[in-house]
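re: that complex we talked abt at group meeting.

here r the seqs, copy pasted straight from the sheet so there may be weird spacing, ignore it
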Amino acid sequence: MSSKLEKKAAAVIKRAEDKGLAIVTAESCTAGALATLLADAPGAGTCFYGGFVTYTKTCKSALLAIPPALIAQHTAVSREVALRMAVSALKASGAHVAVAVTGVIGPEPDEDGNPVGLMHIAATTRGGHTRHVKIASRKTSREANRERALAEALTLLDEILAG
Amino acid sequence: MSSKLEKKAAAVIKRAEDKGLAIVTAESCTAGALATLLADAPGAGTCFYGGFVTYTKTCKSALLAIPPALIAQHTAVSREVALRMAVSALKASGAHVAVAVTGVIGPEPDEDGNPVGLMHIAATTRGGHTRHVKIASRKTSREANRERALAEALTLLDEILAG
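got the structure back, here u go
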């Protein structure tokens, strides 16, 4: 993992620690890499709670109670599904802040025709504040797109913790 | 991630694919790195279902219904907790095979005095087959212990899929 991402993760954990807030993650395309980054930051033991990796549509419904109809209507890579993933992760875990990532990192488009590089990232707090960002990365490498998704998720998390 | 681990993950996914079985993970100390490895293997989309990252004790109870009394009795790094994590992940997800990893990768012992390098890994199937391995790694680096945990988890997964 790049040292730039490690520094971003450390800053997020420091901010959460200062505020006494616990973070939970819900990941599709990053598949646990965001959780690993956060867990590796100094101080994570007190404010990184854990997370969900929901790689398939079935798993999004089983672990995070995402209605199959919502996925059918918007596809798994959508603002609606990202927000619902974040809200469900928060509710199931009892953490204070949740971040969710769903996207297509490649090398192939997904089965619904969403292109490589499309990502939706959402964050939410217990107080009901939400943030969302849509990314259309032009990178084609899986690793480059994963790093972009991780960087954007950490930025969104930092913003919602600061807000 | 080392190419040796990537090869092991690819072999596990190939075996699961051949058998039409879906895998779910439950990770404490590896914090999502096992899920990322499995998701990166060719063919993962059909047989890697997703997983849980339960980094704290509270999170183990919230996400995987591990009774706090079980953790209090055996500590979070124990055969009993590893097995329960695997069984709960299987039940919650609807996958066919689950693997769970709990351990102390360092740099410090955990709050219950479990030493750096102690790991418990468990796997279970819907049919009730279970496997467990206890590792006492002498390595002190967090990265080396994480890689050892990942290698052992992939081996256990491969064995239970073959059995």
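couple things i noticed - The mean pLDDT of chain B is 97. The first strand of chain B starts at residue 23 and ends at 27.
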